[in-house]
Amino acid sequence: MASVEKPDHQAKLRVRDVWELSYDIEENIDKFMVQIDHESSPKAQVFKILIERCKTLTSDIKIRR
């Protein structure tokens, strides 16, 4: 088995930044979804379904990791 290099400090910082960004994005999507919940138009409902599906797919990716 090949040895794996340990990530350098810069790589660790990037990973942390991406991790934080992903949580910020998820939080903003949740806030947006709360706003859409109060909309009754068909377009808002279709958009809500799309966002929920995207969240499910990204959650599946996190679980596989």
Automatic annotation (TrEMBL):
InterPro entries: Rx_N (IPR041118). Keywords: Leucine-rich repeat, Nucleotide-binding, Plant defense, Repeat. Coiled coil: none annotated. Residues 5-44 form the Disease resistance N-terminal domain. Pfam families: Rx_N. The keyword Mitochondrion does not apply. GO terms for biological process: defense response. It comes from the Eukaryota. GO terms for molecular function: nucleotide binding. Belongs to the disease resistance NB-LRR family. This is Disease resistance N-terminal domain-containing protein.
